[in-house]
Amino acid sequence: MFDFDILVLGSGPGGQRAAIAAAKLGRRVAVVDRRDMIGGVCINTGTIPSKTLREAVLYLTGLSQRELYGQSYRVKEDITVADLGMRTRHVVGREIDVVRSQLARNHVTVLPGTGRFLDPHTVGVTSAATAEAAGRETKVSAERIVIATGTRPARPDSVAFDDRTVIDSDGIIHLERIPRSMVVVGAGVIGIEYASMFAALGTKVTVVERRERMLEFCDLEIVEALKYHLRDLAVTFRFREAVAAVERRGRAAIAVLESGKRIPADTVMYSAGRIGTSDRLNLGDAGLAADDRGRIRVDGDYATEVPHIYAVGDVIGFPSLAATSMEQGRLAAHHACGEPVARMSEQQPIGIYTIPEISFVGRTEDELTEAKIPFEVGVSRYRELARGQIIGDSYGMLKLLVSPDDRSLLGVHVFGTGATELVHIGQTVMGCGGTVDYLVNAVFNYPTLAESYKVAALDAMNKMRQVARLTELTGGPAADAAGEGGEPGE
């Protein structure tokens, strides 16, 4: 009755995993995407290019080695866009090959082009692969459809983007030269990641943010540590400010703030969030609609209001992470195929690839305080670890938030080298229902950064022991509330 059992629109992390999961369950599967976008935004313009750029910056500037070899240490004195782009192109090319190979090995049909709904079970695929096929639409039907079309950078109508001087986060990897100065509009994850990279390259960066602080969902102490290091790289922050207009001046620009301040810069980069690329899907003919940010509403199984149509990844909104999108795609495929599958774990790590990087899982101190949940803090600093001295990282830290009631981990927050790797140890302990006692009694390889878990766990345990001893000496909470506790040691 249908051409395919499962048709996936988009080959990014969510779409790719949905297609492969369905194929492994024995379904006839096809993926629709443009030839030049296999792997989606993640591989072509987003996650992979930006993280590769970060590694190139760290290596070529020698930034992570300067504590050992001096502040003037650099691997290459005059770093060019070509130097950065060489590594990026290599990694992107290899990743695209990996995606193509995985789809082929699992017998997933790739339909090159862009898709739009013609009815709830039919998609028109317009190909631009060849001059002869350009604009030609082929009808494809499927029993079930998964939308995984991702997002694109939001572009305010008031801003005249030229992709050279005034750019968005997708255009930054196509810069012709490394700017001497840059204004980054927006202090979200993408804005701060690029701000830190270009600051490391020696660009004078100014970050303009309408809110009072950056990365509001992160632990405040960790954010303050990051802010300190970015300021050390000469980054200027303008909080509670907004850009009213951008005036181009030849190959430079002036960002005019609402307060009247004018900031000249070679490049102005807008990082004003992202919007779902659902506007060209003709959702109305499928019985669907998107909100004003292009996002599609789904239920707990990632099914839309039309039961046989699913949506996963950035197009459904928060948390808009590649790792989460992959899992959403897998779960949606299993549900679409009628196969039992466990729900996604609530303990999802967040990784922010700034310089230095940040990662966390669980709750923050502010969230616990607001919810009136008691907690104790255990901290380990890299400078106290042999591995920290060996790699030249004296600023990194790991923080554990521990429940004094049952000694469970409520949150793990890491700042510094390897943060996005280290966080998974805490994630595993939390996911398995472990307690801080496991970390206290565990043996970690030496010297490693993972040892920071044991140090932080001992710190938290000692603090809880001091509270327990003081409570015992003073007669407990009830006696203390009655004013009969006396002084410690009595």
In a few lines, what is going on in this structure?
This protein is α/β, with parallel strands linked by helices. The chain has 14 helices and 22 strands.
How far apart lie the N and C ends? 84 Å
**Low-confidence sequence ranges:** 478-490
Strand content: 15-25%
The main sheet comes to:
7 strands, mixed
The beta-strand count equals 22
Question: Would you write up a description of this structure?
Answer:
The protein has helices spanning 13-24, 40-44, 47-61, 66-69, 81-105, 189-200, 220-232, 322-336, 365-370, 386-391, 419-431, 436-441, 452-473, 476-481; strands at residues 4-9, 29-33, 109-112, 114-119, 122-127, 136-147, 151-153, 166-168, 181-185, 204-209, 236-239, 243-249, 252-257, 262-265, 267-270, 274-276, 309-311, 350-352, 358-362, 376-381, 397-402, 409-415. By secondary structure, it is of the alpha/beta class. Helix 3 (47-61) runs parallel beside helix 6 (189-200). The protein is globular, with a radius of gyration of 25 Å. Mean pLDDT is 93; it is low at 478-490. The chain contains 14 helices and 22 strands. Strands 1, 2, 3, 4, 5, 6 and 17 form a 7-stranded mixed β-sheet that branches. A 5-stranded parallel β-sheet has the order 8-15-9-10-11, with helices on one face. A 5-stranded antiparallel β-sheet has the order 18-19-22-21-20, sandwiched between helices. It is 33% helix and 23% strand.
